[in-house]
Amino acid sequence: MAHEPPRSALKSERVRDHLMELLESRAPGDPIPSERKLCDQLGVSRPTLRSVVDELVTQGLLVREHGRGMFVARAKITQELAPFRSAHRLPQADGSWASRVLEFTVVQAGARVSRKLRISPADEITYIARLRLVDGEPMAIEYLHVPAALVPGLSAADMESGDFYDMLGHRYGVRVRDAVQSIEPTVTSEEEARLIGVPVLSPALFFERLTQDDTARPVEYVRSVYRGDRYRIVSRLSLGEATPATPHSDARHHPGIPPGDLAGRADVPVLTLGDVQPAG
Fold it and tell me: Which of 39, 187, 203, 224 could covalently link to 228 via disulfide, CB atoms 3.0 to 4.6 Å apart?
């Protein structure tokens, strides 16, 4: 299977950032401009805009009402996978992982990405779109945003070999400390489906991650789409012993466990791993 570079990955990314900026600056139920007005503002075609709008509607961030327009959706319920003090590892999986760079360029950060990375909107970032493969098979698409001043001389070839975090430490003296990552269900767009070899609107997992160094400086903002038919998240919970309940006990809800079932227990350490499934 041939994997051509996406024709408009960066343009779609800019459209998505603009729409997210609108959504984050408005309250649930507020309208956003019409598709025609947004196309004029952004200088993009209706199909390019509509594909991003469809993605945000599928993710539950945007509501489209026939005859009325588009509106900011109600806020989602956010659930931490594990208590803050618990052990947690970023998803990983067996198999031989490799990367193929689809797009590599330096652009201005823009409003939304600059807020994530805590830099000026006019500052430059290195933008990388890359296909992630396991044992030669496409598994995910990653869109990375890294402050350009942090990685002078970084090349596309660098992003296809070795571990990026190791490179940050050894070449640039950037010591990665922690990351906040969210995971949501989504479906593949036409471009994503073509690249990872699944039908359009196939189930997928959407990851968003912000990584910081040991000085709490953001060093990487990543969006990823993993194919849902071959990749899953597995959590192992260590339930421990029950402890006497207290009036101020922290009643946390763990995904898949009814609220209250862990009441009175100490913190529940969680080990989270990615799991690549055999091809069907």
Answer: 203
> How far is residue 272's CA from residue 122's CA, in Å, rounded to a whole number?
37
18-53 pLDDT tens trace: 999 999 899 999 999 999 999 999 999 999 899 899
The pTM assigned to this predicted structure is 0.73
